[in-house]
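During the second year of the project, the team shifted from modelling isolated chains to modelling whole assemblies. The rationale, set out in the original proposal, was that interfaces cannot be judged from single-chain predictions alone. As a representative example for this report, we include one of the complexes processed in the last quarter. Its constituent sequences, exactly as entered into the pipeline, are reproduced here:
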Amino acid sequence: MTRSASRGAATTATVVVPIYMDNSATTRCDPRVVAKLLPFFADDFGNAASRNHVFGWRAEAAIEVAREQTAALIGCTPKEIVFTSGSTEANNLAIKGVAELYAGKGRHFVSCVTEHKAVIDPLKHLELGTIPGQPRAEITFLPVDRLGHVDLDALSAAIRPDTVLVSLMAANNEIGTLHPLAAIGRICKERGVLFHTDATQAAGRIPIDVEAFGIDLLSLSAHKFYGPKGVGALYVRREGPRVRLAPLLDGGGHERGMRSGTLNVPGIVGMGEAARIAREDFASDVARLRALRDRLEQGILARSVNAVVNGDPDDRLPHLSNVSFPYVEGESLIMGIKDVAVSSGSACTSASLEPSYVLKSLGLGDELAHSSIRFSLGRFNTEAEVDHVVDMVSREVARLREMSPLWEMVQQGVDLTKVKWTVH
Amino acid sequence: MAYSNKVLDHYQHPRNVGSLDKDAADVGTGIVGAPECGDVMKLQIKVDESGRIVDAKFKTYGCGSAIASSSLATEWLKGTTVDEAMAIRNTQIVEELSLPPVKIHCSVLAEDAIKAAIADYQSKQERLREAGAPES
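Output from the structure prediction step:
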């Protein structure tokens, strides 16, 4: 795995390939996190729910530290944290749990078209009435503009007397566009509806304060901020209002009845430590990521004519750059830069040939959506890696363009929208 | 997704990338696919008087398998007769490149491109014959 790649590199610094630039898919577990969680496998292995002996007490004490650390990252109290297996579970718990317990209030939900599938699909299940014991619900999926923003007036207009929950992500996983959480929270408070936000991509990358932003439910996943996989949390507001949830799992009544199942002690300890580091190093981490991202993006734009950045160039996650390279197909480009780990579309959808639904919902033509690559930087990337990637991407884009009939037509002045294509 | 070595080889060292004069009488051009589907192939053949394909070029916008399928097609076309070229089937491309099921459409596109290029060449020849034939 550790070959040195110097060929054609624009820098003299040593770069080790493969280079990981897919930190929105997952991050490397921080070595400080690993050191913290390892003792909880074989030494302090107790069940945090064991009340009668020191093994249980130790595990529980460690869980409570992690709960405080996780709470501090988003500005809530420890009692408002429900540990889960990750964001997918947290999103399902928030949506289905609220839907069940608030069925008496109404059956209408508001979300948007660029949400992650872990929000869209539970909502669609509610809409179809395919969740046992739950009557059908109505869902409004708000559209987004060219930059990926929802119109706040449209949000206001969509909320009805029977609306139970608004679910809008803090930051989009493909393009990084940020939703204005405080403004959305205010609207939801005024209208008396609950506000859930999927903060999977945002945690540790933008400041989050559930009080200041008026958030009632918030989903987290540890492995997106240098913690372990398989662990996450749902923040559930306890006061003003106290949010109630029906659990997804029946069992021992762990996590105040909201999530039964023996706690994943090593995972949760790791999540806590990851949250601590994310909070304490926030300013320096983010400044560094932003500088690296801007260096990458500017380098690519300077050397690849017509490349376009997708999403909001300003109001965006600091570590992410989604770029379309017109006339070059994304999958072939990724193949050409095989020593660089990036995503074409979303990692969850790259097995399919359909272009990204997020990019399409921005109004991007299919050919631009087919040509997009998501670079997402992380704590462990270096300037030398960025320069190497700029160099590799630029050379490969140039090579593939020489091979592209579309590029040739455009050079000859052909308007591609006027060509009669053979759809197959 | 893991690509076969043959796909990787064609992708990294594509054969016969380029363009022939699309207005020349002995050149046939086929352009198939659509940008919104994620692949467009342009395949060109140059045919001598005896009906033998003496040159073939391609340009492809698409995934690695699409590039490899068209690159392979040009290799096979060179030196064959137009009739032999008509007999090339996408399944042969699938087999040669070990394409997975999700990439079979790339081979279909390559077969379509060959047929489109031949059709273009033949219609040019047809027009030439009609224009050149003395009226009687």
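The radius of gyration of chain B is 15 Å. The beta strands of chain B are 27-34, 39-47, 53-61.
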